[in-house]
Every structure is written in C-alpha cells, then in structure tokens.
Design a protein that fits this description.
The structure holds 3 protein chains of 3 kinds. Chain A is an all-alpha fold. Chain A has helices at about 5, 10-25, 30-45, 50-75, 85-100, 105-130, 135-155, 165-170, 180-200, 200-210, 210-215, 220-250, 260-270, 280-300, 305-330; strands at about 160, 250. Chain A contains 15 helices and 2 strands. In chain A, helix 6 runs antiparallel to helix 12. Chain A is globular and about 65 Å long. By secondary structure, chain B is of the alpha/beta class. Chain B has helices at about 1-25, 40-55, 70-80, 100-105, 120-125, 140-155, 170-185, 205-215, 230-240, 255-265, 275-290, 310-315; strands at about 25-35, 55-65, 85-90, 110-115, 130-135, 160-165, 190-200, 220-225, 250-255, 270, 300, 305. In chain B, helix 2 packs parallel to helix 11, helix 6 runs parallel beside helix 7 and helix 8 crosses helix 9 (about 230-240). Chain C folds into 2 domains: about 1-80 and about 165-245, Rossmann fold (3-Layer(aba) Sandwich), CATH 3.40.50.300; about 90-165, no CATH class. Chain C has a 6-stranded mixed sheet with strand order 6-9-10-3-11-12, sandwiched between helices. A 4-stranded antiparallel sheet of chain C has the order 2-1-4-5, covered by helices on one side. A two-stranded antiparallel sheet of chain C has the order 7-8. In chain C, helix 5 (about 150-160) packs parallel to helix 6. The longest helix of chain C is centred in the C-terminal third of the chain and has 16 residues, at about 180-195. Classes of the chains: A mainly alpha, B alpha/beta, C alpha/beta. Chains in contact: A-B, A-C. Chains A and B meet through helix 4, helix 7, strand 1, helix 12 and helix 14 of A and helix 2, strand 7, helix 8, helix 9 and helix 10 of B.
C-alpha cells in the first residue's frame, strides 16, 4: 500500500465525501438534503426561489441557528444542555429590563442579555463539574429556574415592550441589505466553526466527548473544559435571546419555549452525534436551515398546522436515517 | 430560651388569628391556567377586587404553563383537600379537570367554568355540573376583529388577509380564528384569507410567518392574530418591511404592551378581553349562587376594540377595566 | 547507571500494604516482563512510575534523577509513556488526532489567525510513525474505532513512540488480540528494544513474555519474588514463583 492510498480514498463519490468531511468539516449528506428540499419547494411554490425569500429563511433561522451552535459544542463534548430555551427568554427580559425599565444606555441590553446567558451557563458548568450532578438534571433544573426568574423580572408575566432604536436595529436592521440577525449568525457560526474544527479547544472537546478517561490520561483538563463549554452554550442562548428580543421589539419571558429541542434537532440533522465525539458547526447551521426551508415552504403553501407537524417530524427522521445509512457503510468498508 | 418561647407563642397566636379569620369568611378556590401571562395576571386582580367587594377570602393556584394539563389536575385535587366553599376553575382543556370537578360536585362545592374552556356536552357525559360559565366569547372576539377590519377597509375592499392561529389544537385560538374568518366572509367577501397558520403563541414564530406570507403576497392588507403577543411579532415584521401603512394588524387580549404599541401607532387594534372584569364578575356571581339566587348558565363579559382613537380619547367607560 | 531505578518503594491504601520495599532496575534497550497474580501490585507499581500514585516511602529514579514530587505530565515529557490495557483511544477520531491527543501542534492560519491545529504536519508525522512501525492501516483518516484490535494497538503504540520516549510501559497489550495480531505487536516490542527504548511488559500470557523479554520479574503480594534471566528460566519455574510454590 503506497502512502497516497493512506491519505485519501479513491472513488469519486467517496473522494467528494472525504473532501466535505475532513476539509470543510460538514457532511455532504446534510447539504444534499438541504438542496433536495430546496428544489422540491421551488417546484411546489413559485415564490420560494428568490433572494428576498432566501433572506427570509435565513432571518427565520437565525435564533435557532445560534442556539444550535452552542448545542453542537455541548453534544460534541458528550454533554447536554436543556436550559437554552429558557435562558433565551431570561436573557431577553434582562436585556429589555436594563434599557427600558432601568433606562440604562442601549448597549446595556447587549451586556445584559449576553451576561445573563453566560452567567446561567457558568452556573450549569459549576454544578455539573464541581458537584458532579448529571448535566441532564442540572440543565433541566436551570430550564425551570431561568424561566421562573424571567417571569419574576417581567411585570405581571408580560413582555417588556419598546426597545431603543439601536437595539431594534440588531433584529430588524438591514446593513448592506442583509438582515442583522443573519450577519450575527454568520459571524457566530464562522468563529465557532473555527473553534470546533481547527483549534485545540475544539479537538479536546471532541476528545472528551469520545473517551473522557483517555483525554484525561493525556493531560487534558476535562472539568475546566466542560465549564467553558457550558458558559459558551449559555452565552449563545443569550445571543439568541438578544436577536429574538430585537426582532420582536420586546423582552418576552415566554420566548424560546421548547426551542432547546428544536436546537438539538438542528444539530443532529447536521450530523452531530447525540452521544458525543462527533459534530459540525456548519452542519448544525445547515440543519437549522433545513428546518427553516421546510417551515417557510409549508407557510408559502399555506399548509394546515397538523400537516406541518407531521412533515417536520418526518424530515427529522429521514435526515438522520440518511446520515446513519452512510455511517453504516463506512463501518462495513 | 425565653426569646424562643416568645417567638413560638407569638407564632401560635398569629396562626390562631389567621385560622379564626379564615373561619369567619368563606374561602373560594381559584384555579387558573398559569400566571406567566398578563391576561391571567389581570384576571387575578379582578378576582381580588371581586373577593374584597363580596367579603370572601380566595385561595389561588395556577399551573406553570398553559400546556401543563396534568399538573393542573393535581393542583385541582390538592385544592379539593382544602374544601373550598366554591371552585372557580379555568381548565387548560375541556377534559383534564373533569374527575376533580366531579369530586367537587359530590362534595356539594359549586363549580364555575372561568373563561369558558369546558364543553357542555362533554360535561354532561362525564356527569359534571357547572354553576355557570363566564368569560368573553372568543368567537365573538374574532368576529369583532373582523368587523373592525371591515369598518376600516370598507365592505367592498379587496386583498389578501393572513390569520395567525394559536397553538395548533388549542380551542381558544381556534375559536378566535374561526370567528374572524366567518365574519370576514359574511361582511367583506373581497377580503380573502390566503393563509391561516399556527403561530403557537410565539412572537418569533408569528414574525417568521408574516415574513413568509409577505413574500408571497406583497399586497397583504390585513393580519389577524389570535393573541397580542403574536400580533406584536407581526407588527415588527411589517414595519421592518416598511409596510406599516399598508397592513392593518389586529390582535386579541388588550395586553399592556399591545396598548403601548397601539398608542405608538404600530399595532392597529386589539380586541380587549377585559380579564379583570371576568375575574371580578366570576366571584360576585358565584356569591349570588351560594346565596341561592339565579345566575344564567352562560355569562358573557363584553369585549371591546382598542384603537389609537379610543385610547387617546380615554372616554370609554370600560377602559378602566383594561389592565 | 540504570535508566529506571526503583528502590525500597512502599505504598499502602488505608490498612492494605500494596507495595512492600520493591527494588527494580530497568536498563535502556531491554524488555522486562512483569508478571504476577491479580492483586500482586503490578498496576500500582507502574502507576508510581508514571506518577498517578505518590509513593509512601523509597525512591524512583529516572536517568539518574529522582521523580519524587514530579507530576505525571512532566514525567511524560521526560520520556515515560504508558499504553493502557483499554488503549485509551478516542474511537471516533482519526489516527493523527489520537496520536497527538493533548499535544497537538499549532500554527498561524493564513499568517494571522492564531491557534490552528497543524493537521497537515500531524498527518505527515502520523504516516511516518506508522511506516516506522511497519504497520498496515487502511487509512489514517478513518476513525480508529473502525480498525481491528491489532490496528488500534498500533495506533496506541504509535502515540507512545511519537514523542521519543525512553521507557514504555505496556499493560496487557496482547490480551484482546487475534493470534496473527499478537505476532505483530511482539515484533513492535522487539523493534522498540532495538531502537534503545526500555520496555516494561505486563502480561498474563507467559508465552508472549517468554518470546520477547530479556528478564522476567515476578511480583507477589507487593514484593519482588524473583528476578530472572529469560534465557535461563522456564515456564514452570516462573509459574511456581507466581503462585508462591517455589
């Protein structure tokens, strides 16, 4: 066997897959599912295929996309964060409280939202690593705690309405014709993609999700890494909360209800393993886009709500099945 | 040591005092869907005002969200343990509380259907008797929204209309959307509902739906959302697309943030439910029942359309109940 | 001067005395087999060398310097590697990621972005190492979990050898392998010895021990029971020392 054989597989399809997998760190299958869905929607609805509608889809995907980034990092490390939907709601309320109720300068909304998110994530990390309580339990607890605190801060459980202009611009502005949330998502995705796929931090994240004791034996500080990851996940939820609040011009304590499940779904459709050690940030964004395209298409076609639920459930199962089909083949090879 | 004794003694006195106080006044059990919503917050204020006026105590419980059906049944059963004089219940759906309400019937505790979430035919099958049902008529609220839209655009107006429904399968949202659609069809056949989609009570989702439908129908003339939160999500999308002048947007509830938005000239109107009045009248009417007086089986508390003109004038007497 | 010199090492866990005045020397370029019954103290002894356990008494010297108080990571840097029985591999990561786990080289991407893992260099070094071991692996880009047990063992050995160790401790490297794979691992051990590396081989498979070692040390109840030249002893003698019937 020559050494070139050992670097790359030979057949054309395999080579393409290999290129996407190891060079771009995203699974070719996810992209194919997205494209097929896009083509199907273009055929079904004449309104689908336009730049403005694509921007709509990206805008609609931005919140879930940002959440899915944090979720992907957590899943890769073998962890789980169920609290992000609630943290999204809390972050929006805290941000709005700072700049509306307390009348602090507008940028304090950003500080408040990101700060509240990062703090909640930090607390998650402390409980998980120092008290050794399972992540499922800690973040499930935080799901309730963050939601409760948000409802206490907001008057009468209602929303804090009417944000300052610069904050609204983060959700509704269109610099260069592109909606601000889309730009925020793109920046967050590129930075996190670099972090996971190309930095030691990301490699160690995959390693602890793959085999924690092996990682520890090579000198990786597992607990400190986990604490950082949960803080990042919380901060991403805070960022998503900021986007949500700016889009709807209100800090809504009920915002983000069950979004954690949607974010996990997006990550998994994008090829991230529920059990750690494998995952892709770009994949997660594509996963979120797959659901966004589906939702947008069903809306354009004015499909009734019950059928929408069925369609979304079916696509989830199908996307993961296609992914596993591929993994199965590799195992046999 | 003496200090501790004093504290214990004081607590005992206070406890006895409370018990004596409670024994004086009848205690009404109030079970709501959730408090995580200004609608129910205002309803509680109304219950409080009604209890003060009627000279009764009330004991209020609510589930953590308006989806938490089974937890609400547990709360109901717990409440029954305290043997309240009456039970005022806003059931999360039409069947979950039936076993508990049946037990209340057996104990001779009168039951009020607050906000009209129970279904009379199902009640009959389950053998549950309701003293009366009180609330706004959700279908009428939807129809009122349609009347407002038609009044503003004209009966001969033409153009596409979007309806944003509540959580799919939720009866309140369905009634509002249905009431709107039927009335619109009757009074302005030129206004066509091009899509009726589930916003799941989620502002962000309503914003996305509005975006999608504006893509398909850039000439959209009106949006009806089954609650204010979703209507406000739609408002932000419409204004971001610079179509604030073109699209009439109507929500339901009359929340404080909706009022703010209407005053700013963004949300066009909200069909206010006056939950404060519902809560107040519920307590007052059941008091009459306990005194052996007649109350109609269905009490409809009126709804009113809040617009910038109405709010700015401030002369409408019912405005005092908008919380 | 011996490469590794253990003298009078004691270790107890609570009331249980696990190591009791152990003396052991290992020279560079030799293979020492460490045998003994379960609970004889083999693993504990090895962990006092890698630094996972601190000794209660006695001294561990490496290249003439005492290791007492030196952290596991620092001992690894001085040239002590251990290959664990379960291999401690990340099964979903590829060969290079496993070989360089925790020690990934970084570079500046596009000349200005810091902290990029230098994958090209890692792949190149990984290939060289696999070639040096004369091993066959389907592709270094496959997740190692798809490899056979022997191939995985090769990756674990490659990881231990990449940073030029002086002493490699192998815990039951052949226990889970097919017969033909055992042969290639034994070959690798001889190769290490020929390159001047000292190897301590812990194994229950006495056939393997006899095939590759220069010396066989028998540990029994925390003491060195025997220290034998492999050429001059026989299976029966070793077994009798192990069971304490000598």
């Amino acid at each position: 066997m020559s050494s070139t054989d050992m670097i790359a597989p030979t057949s054309g399809w395999r080579q393409l897959q290999f290129f996407f997998d190891s060079k771009l760190h995203v699974r070719l299958e996810s992209i194919i599912v997205l494209v097929v869905l896009g083509v199907a929607m273009s055929v079904l609805s004449p309104y689908f295929l336009s730049v403005s509608n694509f921007l709509n889809i990206l805008l609609a995907t931005s919140t879930i996309g940002v959440l899915a980034i944090g979720t992907t990092l957590i899943l890769c490390s073998g962890g789980l964060d169920l609290s992000i939907g609630s943290i999204l709601g809390l972050a929006g309320v805290v941000g709005a409280y700072f700049c509306v109720e307390l009348e602090w300068p507008w940028f304090m909304a950003i500080v408040g939202a990101l700060g509240a998110g990062a703090f909640a994530g930090f607390v998650n990390g402390q409980f998980i690593t120092r008290l050794r309580i399972p992540a499922f339990i800690v973040t499930l607890g935080m799901l309730g705690i963050a939601r409760g605190i948000g409802l206490i801060i907001a008057p009468n459980g209602g929303a804090i309405y009417g944000l300052p202009g610069p904050v609204i611009y983060l959700g509704q502005g269109r610099p260069l014709g592109i909606p601000s949330p889309v730009i925020i998502l793109a920046i967050a995705a590129v930075l996190s993609h670099y972090l996971l796929a190309y930095s030691r931090f990301g490699w160690h994240t995959l390693a602890i999700g793959d085999n924690e004791s092996a990682a520890r034996a090579t000198g990786i500080s597992v607990e400190s890494l986990r604490r950082k990851l949960y803080t990042i996940s919380g901060m991403m939820a805070g960022l998503a909360g900021l986007i949500f609040m700016a889009r709807v011009n209100a800090g809504d304590p009920t915002a983000g209800y069950t979004y954690e499940l949607t974010a996990i779904t997006a990550a998994i459709i994008g090829g991230t393993s529920l059990f750690g050690g494998k995952g892709s940030i770009l994949g997660a964004v594509i996963g979120a886009l797959i659901m966004g395209v589906l939702q947008n298409g069903l809306n354009l076609l004015a499909v009734q709500s019950y059928y929408q639920q069925i369609a979304i459930g079916a696509v989830l199962i199908l996307a993961v099945y296609i992914d596993q089909l591929q993994t199965g083949k590799e195992k046999k090879a | 040591m003496t200090k501790l004794k004093t504290i214990l003694l004081a607590s005992a006195v206070v406890l006895m005092g409370t018990a004596a106080n409670a024994a004086d006044k009848p205690v009404y059990g109030v079970l709501m869907k959730t408090l995580a919503n200004p609608f129910w917050g205002a309803m509680e204020q109304g219950v409080k005002a009604g209890s003060d006026a009627a000279g009764v105590e009330y004991y209020l419980q609510a589930a953590e969200s308006d989806q938490a059906a089974e937890p609400q049944l547990n709360l109901c059963n717990t409440m029954l343990e305290r043997k309240p004089a009456v039970m005022i219940t806003a059931a999360i759906n039409s069947n979950i509380l039936l076993p508990c309400l049946k037990a209340a019937n057996d104990l001779g505790i009168p039951v009020v259907d607050l906000d009209g979430n129970l279904d009379p035919s199902i009640n009959e099958k389950a053998g549950v008797k309701i003293a009366f049902q009180i609330g706004s008529d959700n279908e009428a609220a939807g129809a009122q929204g349609a009347d407002f839209v038609v009044g503003k655009l004209g009966a001969d107006a033409k153009g596409p209309v979007l309806v944003i429904e509540g959580l799919s399968g939720n009866i309140t949202g369905q009634k509002r959307a249905r009431g709107f659609a039927e009335q619109l069809k009757k009074t302005a056949p030129g206004l066509e509902i091009v899509a009726s989609l589930p916003g799941d009570w989620d502002r962000g989702k309503a914003a996305n739906i509005t975006n999608d439908i504006l893509t398909k129908h850039p000439d959209l003339v009106a949006i009806f959302a089954a609650n204010d939160g979703m209507a406000l999500g739609a408002v932000e999308t419409v204004f971001a697309a610079n179509k604030g002048e073109q699209v009439t947007i109507v929500g339901v509830d009359g929340n404080s943030d909706a009022v703010k938005s209407i005053k700013e000239g963004r949300l066009t109107a909200s069909v206010a439910q006056l939950p404060y009045l519902v809560g107040k009248q519920a307590v007052e009417s059941i008091k009459l029942v306990t005194e052996g007086k007649e109350v109609p089986a269905v009490v409809h508390v009126p709804t009113m359309v809040l617009t910038k003109a109405v709010l700015d004038a401030g002369t409408e007497p019912m405005l005092e109940f908008v919380k | 001067m011996s490469l590794l010199q253990i003298s009078g090492v004691n270790k107890h866990f609570g009331a249980v005395q696990v190591l009791n005045g152990v003396d052991l020397t290992v020279e560079a370029g030799t293979v020492v087999g460490l045998v003994g019954d379960n609970g004889a103290g083999k693993s504990t002894l090895m962990k006092t060398i890698t630094g996972i356990y601190a000794v209660d008494g006695g001294d561990v010297q490496f290249s003439g310097e005492s290791l007492i108080g030196v952290a596991p990571g620092a001992r690894r840097q001085r040239g002590i590697e251990m290959i664990y029985q379960d291999l401690a591999l990340c099964k979903q990561q590829d060969v290079a990621a496993n070989i360089f786990l925790g020690r990934e080289p970084v570079k500046w991407a596009f000349g200005f972005l810091p902290g990029f893992v230098d994958k090209a260099r890692m792949d190149e070094d990984a290939l060289k190492m696999i070639a040096r071991l004369g091993a066959r692996i389907p592709s270094i880009h496959r997740p190692v979990g798809m490899f056979s047990g022997g191939q995985q063992q090769t990756v674990a050995i490659a990881r231990a050898l990449t940073f030029n160790p002086k002493l490699v401790i192998m815990d039951e490297p052949t226990a889970a392998l097919a017969v033909r794979e055992v042969e290639s691992v034994l070959k690798l051990i001889r190769q290490m010895r020929d390159e001047g590396i000292a190897v301590i081989l812990i194994s229950h498979r006495l056939n393997d021990v006899f095939e590759v070692t220069d010396r066989i040390v028998v540990l029994r109840q925390g003491r060195i029971e025997a220290d034998l030249q492999t050429r001059k002893t026989q299976m029966r003698e070793v077994v009798s020392y192990i069971v304490g019937a000598h």
